[in-house]
Description:
Layout: H1 2-25, E1 26-28, E2 35-37, H2 42-59, H3 66-81, E3 91-95, E4 102-104, E5 109-113, H4 114-117, H5 123-138, H6 141-163, H7 171-181, H8 185-202, H9 208-230, H10 249-256, H11 271-277, E6 282-283, E7 291-293, E8 296-299, E9 304-307, E10 313-316, E11 321-324, E12 330-338, H12 347-354, E13 373-382, E14 385-396, E15 399-407, H13 413-425, E16 428-429, E17 441-447, H14 454-458, H15 467-474, E18 488-492
Parallel strand pairs: 3-5
Antiparallel strand pairs: 1-2, 4-5, 6-17, 7-8, 8-9, 9-16, 10-11, 11-12, 12-15, 13-14, 14-15, 17-18
Amino acid sequence: MRNRVIHHLLVPLLLTVTAAGFTAGCATNPVTGTPDLVFMTEAKEIQLGDSYDSKVKQQYNVYPNPELQAYVQGIGEKLGAQSHRPHLKYHFTVLDSPEVNAFALPGGHIYITRGILAYINSEAELAAVLGHEIGHVTARHGVRQHSAATATGVVGAIVGATTGIQGTQDLFNVFGNAMLSGYGRDHELESDRLGAQYLARTGYDPQAMIGVVGLLKNQEEFEKKRAEAEKRPPRIYHGVFASHPSADKRLQEVVAEADKFKTLSAPGIKREDYLNRIDKLAYGDSAKEGIRRGRMFYHRDLNLALTFPEGWHIENSPHAIVSWTVQKEALVLVRKVALPSDNTASPESFLKSQVKLGAQFNGRPIPDVKLPSVMGTDQMAGPFGKRETRISAVHYGQNAYLFFGAAKEPTTFTRFDPNFIATAASLRPLKPAEKNLAEGQHLRLMRTRAGETFSSLAKKSPLTEYSESTLRLINDKFPDGEPVAGELIKIIE
């Protein structure tokens, strides 16, 4: 009954809001020439993209390679000049992330991760990914998504005011999720069509769109199986759908339409030009953020090593390291806090200044740890709810490292507690032999010799898992292709 009353209250108000929005916000779509129901001018769109750009760069570091950044910017600008919105100022940024992704903000900010660059095998394929993302900008997909998110926020506010239940979802998160994970089949297909046109107009082969979607589909299928085995979300590119491009008739049709825009009888591919640009590209974890190798974590700039429990998954982010059991029965979180330059507080006093602890917290040094340290237990709210938590702190260099360990079931805390303590106790400086490990892995180029196979190359690889499949994937030879003698390929060192 209450829901029916709310419905009668909401409908007239929503109709009023929608009508007002249509009157004020209807604009012409730059691609189709038809009206769009949007709530912002182009100037506001650019301003929105600029504001979200700072949020993206809080989440991701920019990859520290000016030459590569300039190379990507140059290709992107050529594509943008041939787009439906050539007057926009496009900004292309390579992010220092192993994720396989690229995404666009309204107004012309476009990002591509070094993770996806590792799988691309030609300049034309790079242009295809950038062209696809430019398509999202020119067709104003982000603007439409933001307008929808804004409408959702308006409705949520009305519902909250009517029911007393306030929504907690941040508007940027609503929009940002679509930005990172895609806009739906129709919009993604429209971006493929537009990207193929921009490729053809710029002198690239539009079939590179089919090629790059195919290699990323292979990566997606492999990554999903690996993520399932490791019980984590897969890292995949949003511009790939259920069917392989070889069987995707709609994708083939929209790409074929771009042939009429070709400017060259023999469009460019530029395979080796591209490969030479990504020689020595960082692969996997970033040395700046820390390197995971099995159960070990190495950080070059902080000169530290950590050992996590055997078999636990490790996830690293700019804000914390989290490690958990395969069944997610327990976890330990590590957070770094800068110490004041004039710090004289004991580890326990400093810990209490950072974490609200109860009177029952009885701190004592971590056994067998030479660095200043403290540990104890307290009831704390966490991902499992309010649970008994092992709280530890170790002072090293200019930072305090805080460790929080908790178990899903209160009855299993005692079983996991030795793991929590051992993790905190493992913090130490890097050994000389570990400094090279802390530099991380990189792509390198090589000319294959007669008789070399991915199996033989995998045996020399530093990769500890899936090395042969990974080499095939990054060279577009998955699942069973082999290198040809004299071929330039990517390996990992």
